[in-house]
Design a protein that fits this description.
The complex is a heterodimer of chains A (271) and B (174). Chain A has 271 residues and is of the alpha+beta class. Chain A folds into 3 domains: 7-53, Uridine Diphospho-n-acetylenolpyruvylglucosamine Reductase, domain 2 (2-Layer Sandwich); 59-173, 2-Layer Sandwich (Uridine Diphospho-n-acetylenolpyruvylglucosamine Reductase, domain 3); 181-270, Enolase-like, domain 1. Chain A contains 11 helices and 14 strands. In chain A, the strands form 4 sheets. A 5-stranded antiparallel sheet of chain A has the order 4-5-10-6-7. A 4-stranded antiparallel sheet of chain A has the order 11-12-13-14, with helices on both faces. In chain A, strand 13 (206-212) and strand 14 form a beta hairpin. The relative contact order of chain A is 0.12. Chain B has 174 residues and is of the alpha+beta class. Chain B has 2 domains: 15-90, Beta-grasp domain (Ubiquitin-like (UB roll)), CATH 3.10.20.30; 93-169, DNA polymerase, domain 1 (Orthogonal Bundle), CATH 1.10.150.120. Helix content of chain B is 32%, strand content 16%. Chain B contains 5 helices and 6 strands. In chain B, helix 2 (99-106) crosses helix 5. The longest helix of chain B is centred in the C-terminal third of the chain and has 17 residues, at 153-169. In chain B, 44% of the residues are buried. The chains are: A alpha+beta (271), B alpha+beta (174). The A-B interface holds A 1-13, 16, 31, 34-35, 38-39, 42-43, 51, 53, 55-56, 58, 79, 83, 99, 102-106, 108-109, 189-191 and B 2-12, 31-33, 35, 38, 54-56, 59, 62, 65, 68-71, 73-76, 78-79, 122, 125-126, 129, 140-141, 143-144.
């Protein structure tokens, strides 16, 4: 199908985009990479009155290191971060996660901030941002604010973003000494939405694990460095805590099974 | 490319956009809601690009935008104003098949050919970045495309073959 009619604005600067958001607010959608939004428009699941295109907004394209964070601008594509030669040394967990996100043809245009703003509970980037304790930088004409990932994600496709706000950038904490990382997910075919995704940080004394695709947002748990049956028990408790639901593709029982299995695997991988 | 001032295109209005299609400057009129896939086919007449699912899953409509493989059904025509777009037609300048296309022919990597244009464009981009891919990498790259008749084995063979031939032909870097 084809999108329903809309007014289009190509923002040359961040201010153009913020002006348009202030003016149109709830009737407007931001078009960054469009790899989720365009599909939704084509199927007419969304029919915004105004589309604000930031894909060529030069001042939103930057990917840079700022103190101990990797800062990714709203228009920066996933590909531009994935193919960064130094990524493995900067945010190794991102390097592990990217190959699981759809396909390279999609990552060429899909943006990092777009995936965060979309807040699909099975998406990889919200999972990574939550586990690392990253931040979402929001900006409107009136104010700027920075939210922790945990405060930003509020539910299935729901975030703390106000209608006049732009996700201007997200920032991922850089690799810390002594931290080891793992990422794994299970989907029916490579590139499909994950039924369950798991990411973990393991240190000598602690395990931090995040699970996506089960609850309505990524869920993060922090444990001491559990082993063997203690770890199995903790993963089992976690699998029940997430309140898994049956859907057309996967039963709740199978989702809990995946949480236990992938949880174990991702911690082994990160050790 | 006018990146300095915003561009507004209200619903129902038409805008003349200029772009470079397969190395030639072309222009055409589009509405805000026109998809790049339809614009290339209907307005510019380049019907080599095929339209399958129209939500980014099948990969048939893959083209290059500024040299990078992308789904033309997930882009608006107005977004390519002033940019370089390459389609399957550009792989065979002078009506001669490029090496990638010849490899597909040698390996019988197509039957109906509907998905082929998109696959070729993905391969062209990918082999630029990863000139010597493993079979696993090729299969992962191809996972972004649906082929419902050939099966993927001959396609994988064609891609690996062209990579090997390019390597043998390439002179050593000085």
């Amino acid at each position: 199908m084809k999108p329903a009619p809309f007014d289009y604005l190509r923002a040359a600067t961040t201010h153009d985009a913020l002006d348009a958001l202030a003016h149109s607010g709830e009737d407007a959608r931001i078009l960054a990479g469009g790899q989720s939004l365009m599909a939704v428009l084509n199927m007419r699941l969304a029919q915004p009155r105004v589309l604000i295109d930031i894909s060529r907004t030069a001042d939103l394209e930057a990917v840079r290191i700022e103190k101990d964070h990797l800062v990714v601008g709203a228009a920066a594509t996933q590909g531009s971060v994935e193919w960064r030669a130094s990524l493995r040394d900067e945010v190794p967990l991102l390097a592990l996660a990217f190959p699981n996100i759809s396909h390279f043809q999609i990552r060429n245009r899909g943006t990092v901030c777009g995936s965060i703003a979309h807040a699909d509970p099975s998406a990889e980037l919200p999972l990574v941002l939550s586990l690392l304790g990253g931040d979402v930088m929001l900006r409107s004409k009136k104010r700027k604010r920075t939210l922790k990932a945990d405060d930003f994600f509020q539910g299935m496709l729901m975030t703390a973003r106000e209608p006049d706000e732009l996700v201007e950038a997200v920032r991922f904490p850089l690799k810390k000494a002594g931290e080891r990382y793992g990422f794994t997910e299970f989907s029916a075919r490579h590139g499909d939405f994950a039924m369950v995704g798991c990411a973990a940080i393991v240190t000598d004394t602690a395990i931090r694990i995040a699970v996506g695709g089960v609850a309505d947002r990524p869920v993060v748990e922090q444990w001491p460095r559990l082993q063997g049956d203690d770890l199995r028990g903790a993963l089992n408790d976690l699998s029940w805590k997430l309140n898994a639901q049956d859907d057309a593709h996967v039963s709740a029982t199978y989702r809990r099974h995946l949480v236990r299995q992938l949880g174990w695997r991702v911690i082994e991988e990160a050790k | 490319m006018s990146n300095s001032s915003p561009v507004k295109l209200d619903r129902g209005q038409h805008r003349k956009i200029v772009l470079t299609l397969n190395g030639r400057e072309r222009s055409g009129y589009c509405e805000s809601r026109d998809l790049l896939s339809d614009f290339v086919r209907h307005e510019l007449g380049a019907t080599g690009t095929h339209v399958g699912c129209e939500h980014g899953v099948c990969g048939a409509c893959t083209v290059h935008v500024d040299g990078v493989a992308a789904r033309s059904c997930l882009m608006l025509a107005v977004q390519v104003e002033g940019r370089r777009v390459d389609t399957v037609e550009g792989l065979a300048p002078d009506q001669t098949l490029g090496d990638l296309q010849q490899a597909f022919q040698r390996h019988h990597a197509l039957q109906c050919g509907f998905c082929t244009a998109g696959i070729l464009m993905s391969c062209a981009d990918y082999l630029q970045r990863v000139p010597e891919p493993t079979e696993t990498e090729v299969r992962e790259m191809l996972s972004g495309h649906l082929c419902r008749c050939t099966g993927y084995t001959p396609i994988v063979a064609a891609v690996l073959d062209v990579a090997a031939r390019r390597k043998n032909k390439e002179p050593e870097h000085a």
